[in-house]
Amino acid sequence: MKIVCIGSGNVGTHMANAFKENEADIVQVWSKDPANAAALAFETGAQAIADLEDIDLNADLYLIAVKDDAIAKLVRALKAVNGLVVHTSGATDMNVLSGIKNYGVFYPLQTFSKEEPIDFIHVPLCLEANSAENLSALRLIAVKLSPLIYEVNSEKRKILHLAGVFACNFVNHMYRLSQQIVEKQGLDFEILRPLIMETAVKAQNALPEDVQTGPAARNDKQTILKHEELLQKLPHLLEIYKILSNSIKKTR
Amino acid sequence: MKIVCIGSGNVGTHMANAFKENEADIVQVWSKDPANAAALAFETGAQAIADLEDIDLNADLYLIAVKDDAIAKLVRALKAVNGLVVHTSGATDMNVLSGIKNYGVFYPLQTFSKEEPIDFIHVPLCLEANSAENLSALRLIAVKLSPLIYEVNSEKRKILHLAGVFACNFVNHMYRLSQQIVEKQGLDFEILRPLIMETAVKAQNALPEDVQTGPAARNDKQTILKHEELLQKLPHLLEIYKILSNSIKKTR
Asked: Which residues form the DUF2520 domain (chains A, B) (predicted)?
């Protein structure tokens, strides 16, 4: 299978490498940043291209992994290709690609950082395509990477992307605030890591609503007051503490 | 080693069972709820007692695992005992036990639900005692359960407890809100589980501030606006979305 990778950020890098490990040929890499394209091209044995006019028209898959608002601008350059063109965005409608012959969405519902290795066996792939035939083709490509294949239309994909912000970005921000709290007192974030892990492990087996613990869930007013006192000098965290404690109480 | 367990909730139950598995004798269990005490006593081969006047004066360890505001009331009943008396609370000063001969704190920094099994190898134990001798004794007891032993005074323990609310209780609440978002659209929470796991795994190796992803971290205003639109019918979640997105931007 011949793949052209358009974009070389977190998502493009991890996906190109995962495909390569599964014996696909990454034939070209394009990025608006030529140095970035060159780096990923070198890593995957591809050709780096600086101009989309030089794109190989006969690849099997064109993987768009650029910023959401840059996707539409690529359509003109991809009109002439023969393979399947997919974007990887959670928040962007599939129709942004209409005008291309064969197109779809290949959305990995996962968090990617360049430095952190990732095993695609744990990456849910949300697929959508402009025809049943293209969806089948996309499914055959996807199963090479992950057993977690979901058929999701654009509306539902946007909902998953939004839910992902709560389940990942806001969660990591909570970790970050807890880091701030302990480091301010000369304590090491390391001591919180097992708690973070166990909280995630619980959510693998149970539903979050069934395993909520803590002072707000118990409505332990005395502890909540003590915590609010400890946060007097961090008003920004105090505000978040109050809002989230109230939200937990509300959803009991 | 002979242990008396005072309290039979989430923490008492898991700790008594963990000690039993490590060949300690749970000799007595007391709880304000006699049925609960009887259940844990049966599970651990202990005697259930309904009256603290019947307490065995010669155990090695008295483990207090009751609600925070009930700890102080136990002091009178425990004045005559010869062993080491510890409470397991994160938010309560050690001095609540002063008046007893040998006392301290044995705080497991972890989230416990009765139904979920827990491996104490992953439970950080925060220790404090009223003398160097008692601290040594407590350390010898603690290493039987977990290699994660920390010496933490009452002030710092309260900070850890507060940080734990962010790193666990608020995190689980974020999971819960994401559950609400997907279920409202007929999607299964299951699809978010790998993302939840990966977010926690990242925090095991990196610092949260170094791996923050998402639209707020990228200051991707278009996506944030789209998300806010999707949340119009969930004003409670919209408020939280805005506050946390702003907080992420602020801490960049």
From this structure: 123-247
